[in-house]
Amino acid sequence: MSETTEVTERAEVIDAVGVTGEAEGAGVRGTADVAAVADAVDVADMSDKADMAGTAAVGLGELWPLLRRHTQARIGLGRSGSGLLTRHRLGLQAAHAAARDAVHSAFEPDLVAAALPGMPTVRVRSAAGDRLTYLQRPDLGRRLDPVDRAHLPRGGDPDVVFVVADGLSSRAVHEHAAAMVRATAARLTGWRIAPVVLAEQARVALGDDVAAAMDATMVVVLVGERPGMSAADSLGAYLTHRPVPGVTTDADRNCLSNIRPPRGLDYETAAEKLAALMGRARELGRTGVGLKDESDHGEVTDRIL
Amino acid sequence: MTTYTATLGGERHRFDSLARLLAAASPERSGDRLAGLAAASARERVAARWALAEVPLATFLTEPVIPYEDDDVTRLILDTHDTAAFAPLAGLTVGGFREWLLAADTGALAAVAPGVTPEMAAAVSKLMGNADLVAVARKVRVVTAFRSTIGLPGRLATRLQPNHPTDDPAGVAAALLDGLLLGSGDAVIGINPATDSPKAVRDLLELLDGVITRYSIPTQSCVLCHVTTSVDLMERGAPVDLVFQSIAGTQAANASFGVTLGLLDEAYEAARGLRRGTVGDHVMYFETGQGSALSAAAHHGVDQQTVEARAYAVARRYRPLLVNTVVGFIGPEYLYDGRQILRAALEDHFCGKLLGLPMGLDICYTNHADADDDDIATMLTMLAVAGASFVICTPGGDDIMLNYQSASYHDALYLREVLGLRPAPEFEAWLDAMGLLDETGGLREVTGHPLTAIGRELAA
């Protein structure tokens, strides 16, 4: 079941309750009566169990759609015996399948390069040769393949290098990374921007290796985040000033998470925040815990890649 | 340092320390490879087990895997070792200990628990098959209580986990109602908060306490914040039932969590002083998980399963109500697939129970591990047969705040159905009083219920 379908269904149920004021179950009334019914029931004095389980109660059939406005959690699923209903079981499998495919589908750097007209790009691999190695050896995903490191362009004293890293979701990178590079670069008037590095089997700290090799002052890593059951295409942006491979830690970075329009952060908002952070990082000469995103709250997360 | 050797198929294998021997004897897992500690070959692994089987248990008291002077967990293990309880085991090797455990009864297992160190438990687990780990753990009985009693024979408790990505009280309440109507929450109603801010944590504590009080639910709440936040909130009069903390098996790994034994001592005393329990005074809730020490670069060259067992020595000091190994959460670089997660789950449960702890599990996986809901079903079934004290449950098995998959409330109903397991007795009586049980004791499916008042502000 797609999210869109689910949301639509929920909306329909909610509308139906609002219009008719009726739903399944004995003694069920419109939503305005929910509180009144509940208030009228004194649990401690309840002697008739049948009342509690049926007639005096609030209809769950109409309550769950209302409660789902407040959480994406899979509540009120019903059951058959002890098991989930078939449609819910398949719905969970569909969400898991989307996440698994996002993790395991191959990164296609050409797709990203083609969406960056006028910007030179360069392709690199990490020291993790394949997906299996990448998943089991985070240390290798943080280092450049030595041959690729030697081929990175040098010179020009770049202020920033953008690294597009597949991370744990190639899908996120294919869908969102080029747009984020364009939207951010458009706000960096006067900055010397290095060729965009497209990195395969790469974790966030690979950007440290890239920045050091290219002698860039700052690195922005746009990376596919670990897919969840409700989002398989979430992009993260990690900003690090003057990284030193093996020394720089996650505490030295600033992070924007959940970039995935239309449901998550949109490109223009994310780029505005990122460019603002970059400007302040240049003034202060540092990133990390000493540099807060003051534009609002709550976008800095602890996702571990 | 002692050297250990074994000759297998004409080939001589040499292990330069007890820690190296334990690591090489461990069933394969990605975390030990990542640490460079895994056996180099399948033959070396079995050779290590032959050598380990010959090691006297008493060796673990004289040859600590992490030096006494470097690590307060080692000091805790050795300083609190109960020599009298150890006496029946004192003449055994690790191999002999395995056979002793398989033949022992419930009383004998309880009697030796204070004499078993984490390293002894970890060592013998490496010689045991999955069925051994089930058979021995099933005989161990650890009973703890606060407002409900956990760990009685024929019972399986659950944690109701109504997490929400922004701690929205309406969203939490909705998921709380869902879990209660599915008969869950007798181990604890526990929320992982999105932030550790004292105000946010207190709001959630007040919400849970309000529901528990209003409906007289015989259970306990917990908001899984840092121990220092709990201490702070207790001082300010917040309704803290259980103090939560993640712990690990080395001093340095605990330091990476911002925890010392002194801090835990302080929190333990403060929570006991509140006397909020009704049928017991176990006030601590710990979470652990293989790989945490390695991820903090604080494993001292000890394999991840042995380090995990050492965390149980920390837990044991505080007579916890619940100890939860969050077994598949950490990711495939530590436990790669369903097979490795299952093995770790059985090891952790066995070691914890053997050391006398109320072990439960978060049987779970992340989307980059090679596992799925069938692995969850397999693990749940084996661990319930093994007598797990409780399991973590989430709506539909999908935690929208922590972004991983765990057991569902439906899964717990399945375990009760196929294995004849029942909730904690106080909670079972409450479910019955609320009209939620049918005449056979099974959970009644309702179309409406007064508990829906929990969500009434949302519906208005």
Automatic annotation (TrEMBL), chain A:
A GO term, aspect molecular function: ethanolamine ammonia-lyase activity
EC category: lyase
Reaction(s) this enzyme catalyzes, per UniProt: ethanolamine = acetaldehyde + NH4(+)
Enzyme Commission identifier(s): 4.3.1.7
UniProt pathway annotation: Amine and polyamine degradation; ethanolamine degradation
Location (main, coarse): other
Cofactor(s) required, per the database record: adenosylcob(III)alamin
Sequence positions that bind adenosylcob(III)alamin: V204, E225, C255
An annotated GO cellular component: ethanolamine ammonia-lyase complex
Subcellular location as annotated: Bacterial microcompartment
BP terms from Gene Ontology: amino acid metabolic process; ethanolamine catabolic process
NCBIfam families for this protein: PRK05465.1
Similarity-based family: Belongs to the EutC family.
Quaternary structure, from the entry: The basic unit is a heterodimer which dimerizes to form tetramers. The heterotetramers trimerize; 6 large subunits form a core ring with 6 small subunits projecting outwards.
Protein name per Swiss-Prot or TrEMBL: Ethanolamine ammonia-lyase small subunit
Organism: Streptomyces fuscichromogenes
Protein's gene: eutC
TrEMBL record, chain B:
Pfam families: EutB
GO CC annotation: cytosol; ethanolamine ammonia-lyase complex; ethanolamine degradation polyhedral organelle
InterPro entries, per database record: Aldolase_TIM, EutB, EutB_dom_2_sf, EutB_N_sf
Gene Ontology annotations of biological process type: amino acid metabolic process; ethanolamine catabolic process
Cofactor(s) in the UniProt record: adenosylcob(III)alamin
Record's cofactor remark: Binds between the large and small subunits.
Keyword Lipid metabolism: no
Chemical reaction(s) catalysed: ethanolamine = acetaldehyde + NH4(+)
A molecular-function term among this protein's GO annotations: ethanolamine ammonia-lyase activity
Cellular location(s): Bacterial microcompartment
Chain segments annotated as transmembrane: none
EC number annotated for this UniProt entry: 4.3.1.7
Pathway it works in: Amine and polyamine degradation; ethanolamine degradation
Positions of adenosylcob(III)alamin binding: P193, Q245, S295, M401
Taxonomic superkingdom: Bacteria
Annotated substrate binding sites: R159, L160, Q161, N192, E287, D362
Keyword set, alphabetical order: Bacterial microcompartment, Cobalamin, Cobalt, Lyase
Stored NCBIfam families: PRK15067.1
Family label: Belongs to the EutB family.
Role of this protein: Catalyzes the deamination of various vicinal amino-alcohols to oxo compounds. Allows this organism to utilize ethanolamine as the sole source of nitrogen and carbon in the presence of vitamin B12.
Self-association and partners: The basic unit is a heterodimer which dimerizes to form tetramers. The heterotetramers trimerize; 6 large subunits form a core ring with 6 small subunits projecting outwards.
Protein name: Ethanolamine ammonia-lyase large subunit
